[in-house]
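Project standup — Tuesday

K.O.: blocked on the structure for the chain from last sprint. Re-posting the sequence here as requested.
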Amino acid sequence: MVGNVETSRAKPSSAFQDNATNGPTADQAQGSLQTCEELQYSFKDFDEFKNKVFAKDNNKVNVLQFPNLEEAIKIASTIVPDYLQHIAGKIQIDRGTCTEFELINIQLLVCAAIKEMEDLPLQQLNLSTFLKWGATFNRAKELGFQVKFADTLLKNNLGIFFGYQRPS
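H.V.: unblocked you, prediction finished:
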């Protein structure tokens, strides 16, 4: 059962919680505008958050963190739900081997994280989402289930997100 991989949710640090919105803050909506310097993420902030996402201790993730995954697993006619089959195929190609039975649970979480990375619009992303994806891939690595293209996709999306957050 997928629940075997279950652990607690990762939380972003308080330093990033204020910046984790994709729109104006309540203060901004009431006319208190921030300067460009205040809105920009510095390279230090980016590096600090990237380190948190990829930190080995960021490895707490469960099936409930991925919307509809638990239900899809329950009704799936195969081990991998239909909407994740194409990603499971990419993973098999990337890893060069079929997924062993004991790793199916983590494969489902990795598939769900990749699916979110492919489907979520940039405006809906937040720093907690990146921590969840990082925790998923870190946990997978701990279990010997490394998917290189997923790490690359996460790094690319993180860079795009920080670039998007930066005003022009």
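K.O.: great, moving the ticket to review. Residues 1-35 have pLDDT under 50 and may be disordered. Residues 54 and 134 are 6 Å apart (CA to CA).
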